């Protein structure tokens, strides 16, 4: 192979939003797999809020990316060379890898993607690798929604949020989204079947939530933290549940992050607030994938990919997560 390999490396830890010089895109040699390894070509790169967390030297659920190392990401690609019996050229694999055209993997870092009838590879990777299981286990295991209850989800037009609201509907709940534009609010109601949505950037959030949730909130699926969490805390019903999935409102914070102002609601309303990391459910992924694929095949679950083109656009695409520029699952098509 005479081609070069483009590799994104983390050069500086971002302060606030990701800066132009925090990562560099370098031309390098295509690596050769050793015994027990395989080489694959990147087809799709998942762009996730956690990429920004991995760039920070903070206490987190896995080590941050070290300076000058390739940027880490969830990847989907096609095997080019294999020196391990588990994989052969042409196999489609997904797992944890790096932002590079070509990369080395082992059977411990990637797995073969089993084809799901009626679901194209990009959708299968986007929905089943992280997003769908996160929505599924976070809502059903921690949120424990009962038919007739009200489920509110923030970042409702994003990857996880859009799936959470639809699962809430499938489970017989009232689904209310919180999103950052009127277009996103219309999309989740008109196209995805949510019962209502409120625009947190434009509306008085506690008042708008009160109108959208006349019986209060039983489950608040928190994707963002910050002021949206505070507003939801004012409307929680007795024994309500809050799966803490993400805190994107704070990932770019430059000052110390303050806790929720309405913390007393947790005591007065006997709330259960539980954080989770989807890796904790890794051995139960087949259950989630089976349910999600079934709902897709029955036309009960829609999944939208916000696809960007070209490895060179990884950073600019990633930034859209923090400005609300994405709708659905943000992903990069590479080759
Ligand atoms: N616990 C886990 O294992 C796990 C797994 C996957 C994802 N997550 C978390 O889940 C959340 C959603 O992830 P995703 O991949 O589905 O991303 P996403 O929702 O597709 O994209 C992020 C969205 O967050 C919203 N947002 C950005 N800044 C905000 C702010 N300051 N306040 C309120 N909303 C803001 C934006 O939408 P608006 O236009 O509505 O502002 C943006 O579109 C993230 O916090 C992520 O870290 C956790």
Can you put this structure into words, describing what you see?
This protein has 335 residues and is α/β, with parallel strands linked by helices. 28% of the residues lie in helices and 27% in strands. The chain is built from nine helices and 15 strands. Strands 3, 4, 5, 6, 7, 14 and 15 form a seven-stranded mixed sheet that branches. Strands 10-9-8-11-12-13 form a six-stranded parallel sheet, with helices on both faces. It has a two-stranded antiparallel ribbon with strand order 1-2. Strand 11, helix 6 and strand 12 form a beta-alpha-beta unit. Helix 2 packs across helix 3. The longest helix has 23 residues. It is globular and about 60 Å long.
Provide tags for this entry.
335 residues; alpha/beta; seven-stranded mixed beta sheet; six-stranded parallel beta sheet; 9 helices; 15 strands; binds NADP nicotinamide-adenine-dinucleotide phosphate
């Amino acid at each position: 192979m005479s081609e070069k390999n483009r590799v994104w490396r983390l050069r500086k830890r971002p302060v606030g939003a990701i800066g132009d010089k925090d990562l560099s895109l370098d031309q390098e040699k295509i690596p050769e797999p050793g015994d027990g390894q395989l080489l694959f070509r990147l087809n799709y790169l998942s762009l996730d809020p956690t990429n920004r967390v991995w760039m920070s030297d903070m206490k987190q659920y896995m080590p941050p990316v070290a300076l000058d190392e390739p940027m880490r990401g969830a990847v989907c690609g096609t095997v080019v060379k294999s020196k391990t019996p588990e994989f052969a050229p042409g196999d489609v694999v997904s797992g944890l890898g790096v932002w590079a055209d070509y990369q080395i993997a082992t059977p411990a870092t990637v797995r073969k993607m089993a084809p799901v009838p009626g679901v194209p590879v990009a959708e299968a990777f986007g929905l089943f690798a992280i997003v769908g299981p996160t929505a599924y286990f976070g809502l059903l295991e921690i949120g424990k929604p009962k038919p007739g209850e009200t489920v509110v989800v923030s970042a409702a037009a994003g990857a996880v949020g859009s799936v959470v609201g639809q699962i809430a509907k499938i489970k017989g709940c009232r689904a209310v989204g919180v999103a950052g534009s009127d277009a996103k609010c219309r999309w989740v109601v008109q196209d995805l079947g949510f019962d209502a949505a409120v625009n947190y950037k434009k509306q008085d959030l506690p008042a708008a939530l009160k109108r959208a949730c006349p019986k209060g909130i039983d489950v608040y699926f928190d994707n963002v933290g910050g002021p949206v969490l505070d507003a939801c805390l004012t409307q929680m019903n007795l024994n309500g549940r809050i799966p803490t999935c993400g805190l994107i409102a704070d990932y770019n914070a430059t000052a110390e992050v303050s806790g929720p102002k309405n913390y007393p609601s947790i005591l007065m309303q006997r709330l259960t607030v539980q954080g989770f990391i989807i890796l904790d459910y890794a051995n139960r992924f087949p259950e989630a994938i089976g349910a999600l694929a079934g709902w897709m095949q029955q036309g009960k679950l829609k999944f939208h990919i916000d696809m960007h083109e070209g490895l060179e656009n990884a950073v600019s695409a990633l930034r859209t997560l923090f400005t609300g520029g994405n709708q659905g699952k943000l992903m990069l098509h590479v080759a």
